[in-house]
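Key result, reporting period 2: structure in, sequence out.
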């Protein structure tokens, strides 16, 4: 696939999580702003726009986050997008904070790919050892919000490995779901 192609479907196909080291090249603020703006454009339940973001590019804060989430991909990242959820009831008794955040993050992942950077969706690791709370405290995230996803990013120093996806006919059907495999 042509890595410079900007066709939406190519970008979708090229997007993969990257856990390797990053090059020293910085990510300019203009790019960071464009990337997060893509997240702000995402749909949200009742247009409540419950997801907020802290864009970290300060080296001291980056190092402090890497001390909390000690992974090579975090340690060498040139910037981090910290995605925060607000579990606010917006429709009857319903909150869509998790879904809002996931929609915003997918837009952000695609924008990161389109601009030639790479990232990984870090979520599970934040839910252990109070890491999300530690990052929230470090960044002054208000008590009504939860740090949910961390996106360390930069220019990948290694190729982004494509993960295999199941073929269409194993996961999608017209008009009727296939019987569950026994
Ligand atoms: C809800 C969710 C949570 C995830 N949490 C983590 C995580 O904590 N650590 C990690 O390395 N990857 C995490 N990932 C990335 C997945 O492992 C990755 O998307 C999956 O393996 C498919 O690979 P791909 O993104 O390259 O297509 C998460 C992805 C999602 C959608």
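The corresponding designed sequence is given below.
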């Amino acid at each position: 696939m042509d890595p410079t192609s900007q066709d939406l479907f190519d970008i979708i196909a090229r997007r993969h999580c990257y856990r390797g080291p990053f090059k020293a090249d910085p990510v300019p603020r203009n790019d960071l702003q464009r990337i997060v703006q893509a997240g702000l454009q995402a749909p949200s339940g009742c247009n409540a726009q419950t997801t907020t973001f802290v864009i970290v590019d300060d080296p001291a804060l980056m190092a402090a986050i890497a001390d909390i989430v000690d992974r090579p991909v975090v340690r060498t990242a040139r910037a981090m997008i910290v995605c925060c959820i607000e579990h606010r009831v917006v429709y009857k008794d319903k909150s869509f904070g998790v879904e809002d955040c996931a929609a915003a993050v997918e837009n952000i992942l695609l924008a990161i790919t389109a601009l030639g950077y790479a990232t990984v969706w870090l979520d599970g690791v934040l839910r252990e050892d109070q890491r999300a709370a530690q990052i929230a405290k470090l960044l002054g995230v208000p008590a009504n919000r939860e740090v949910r996803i961390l996106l360390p990013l930069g220019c990948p120093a290694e190729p982004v490995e494509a993960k295999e996806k199941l073929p269409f006919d194993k996961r999608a059907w017209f008009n009727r779901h296939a019987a569950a495999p026994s």
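The chain has a mean pLDDT of 95. The radius of gyration is 17 Å. This case is discussed further under Risks and Mitigation.
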